[in-house]
Amino acid sequence: MKIAVIGAGPAGLTAAFRLQQAGHTVEVLEALPVVGGRTHAEHFGPGHHCDTGAGWLATFYSHTLRLFDELGYRDHFVRQRAVRGAADLLIDGQLYPWSYRAADIESSPLLDADDKRRYAAYIDHLMQVQPDDLRPDLGYDHRDALDEFLPLGERPVEIIMRSLFEGPWFARLGAQSAAHVRLWLRVLQDSKFFQLDGGMDAPWLRLAESLTVRTGEPVERLHRRGAQIELTCASGGRRYDAVVLAAPAPAALRILADEPDLAPPWLGDVHYAPQVRVYAARATSEDAHFGVHLLPPTDLFSVEWYSGRHGAWGACPPDWQWALVCTYGATCAKFLGQDPRRVQQTLWDEALAICPEMFTLAEAEVIHYMGWEWAVPIMHPGHYRNLASFQNRPPVVFAGDWMNNACVEGAVRSGEAAAAAFGRT
Ligand SMILES: Cc1cc2nc3c(=O)[nH]c(=O)nc-3n(C[C@H](O)[C@H](O)[C@H](O)COP(=O)(O)OP(=O)(O)OC[C@H]3O[C@@H](n4cnc5c(N)ncnc54)[C@H](O)[C@@H]3O)c2cc1C
Question: What is the pLDDT of residues 321-351, one digit of tens each?
Fold first, then answer.
């Protein structure tokens, strides 16, 4: 079969690779001039780049790591994460170790004995009943995360759960599925994190070299033409036997606007949290070692300031310092429509109020603003149950992190599932 894959993020490139392996003729159509999607890394000079989207992989990313092993990429790209990151929690001007592991919570001065007992019992229960491979338990998907965590008491919810889930998934607990937070809380108990040499997109750039990829080719519409599918692209109409739609859900919905019966009825309900962050760096050999999470909701979710030798969300020369300021996703949409230069100054000023010793933007030699309208799909209550009732049906099959799990591993799994729907030639 001649199959088009729309979108060259981890989902689309995985699908394209597996389809090619299965003997199909595959063409990947990517809107942007570059591949990698939300794993894109920005390069500033020798040994210096920052990951603008995804910043880490983890030991429980079994399909991603298996794919990298198969391609011979593991030794080449995958490294234990060097950076300590935002490992402290800042509350009322005081720093506390930030943790979600039951063993570390035991010594926390922020929780009382009852809080600790309830938390330990909950994690113990989760370790026994929740699968350890990022699989949702559909029995919990009708509830939201706040409902799930309320029995733990107010302090564990405010101090552990909000900073753990509202920060990295950029959405309020009440908007997230209980099944989603349970599966992550389980795997995070005994995991290690990796970063990738050359940037989070490096393996995807390499994989794309072995595929036929047309960049700068946004797909606008999809139409059925007899047994074939026609895609309206920047370069004109292109015909295929089948399509893997590996673009974020709102883009997929737009592409299917003239063929609504090909879209699952709930596709329009898949919403994304936005994210705005600022990276800056300057040449200096002075040491710096500061990384905090803040308790949401605030404009900022984390402030990190390190010397280059402590690593980065990417890589920074050892005789430089870098800093990364991330917003709290659930409230940062207001920044997206504003002038980026003004936003970056506002956010940096807020970060300097937290860490006055940090360098100013005027002292920085590199400044990079990152604004994502669709940063991460919100796995809202009902999301996984809706997915479970949806079958991948050629000739139009969906892929993307929203089809599995809001991370690179979810995207890879969704790409493999999409390719499997076509079988071998
Ligand atoms: C700030 C941030 C931090 C993150 N941190 C992490 C992390 O630490 N770890 C982790 O695992 N995940 C993280 N993620 C999530 C991770 O990046 C995504 O889950 C993953 O990239 C999803 O892959 P995908 O292929 O489904 O989508 P994408 O990576 O978004 O790829 C989709 C591709 O489709 C293209 N496209 C869209 N519309 C069209 C069209 N009409 N025609 C053609 N092409 C189109 C896009 O340009 C894009 O290249 C983070 C994301 C962000 C934004």
Answer: 999 999 998 889 999 999 999 999 999 999 9
Number of domains in the chain: 3
Domain final residue, candidates 165, 188, 211: 188
The pLDDT value given to residue 103: 83
CATH number (domain holding residue 406): 3.50.50.60
- Please, what is the Cα angle at 132 between 130 and 136, to 5 degrees? 55
Angle at 229 between CA 223 and CA 231, to 5 degrees: 65
Contact 32, 219 (CB under 8 A): no
CATH number of the domain where residue 162 is located:
1.10.3110
The CA distances from residue 167 to 93, 291, 326, in Å, are 19, 14, 9
- The alpha carbon of 77 and the centre of ligand 1 are apart by a number of angstroms equal to 19
Residue closest via CA to ligand 1's atom 33 equals 7
Pocket probe mutation, ligand 1, options 38, 57, 205, max atoms within 8 Å of Cβ: 38
**What is the mean pLDDT of the segment spanning 55-62?**
95
Range of the domain at 150: 101-188
| Global pTM value | 0.97
Q: Do 255 and 339 belong together in one domain?
A: no
Percent of the chain with pLDDT over 90: 85
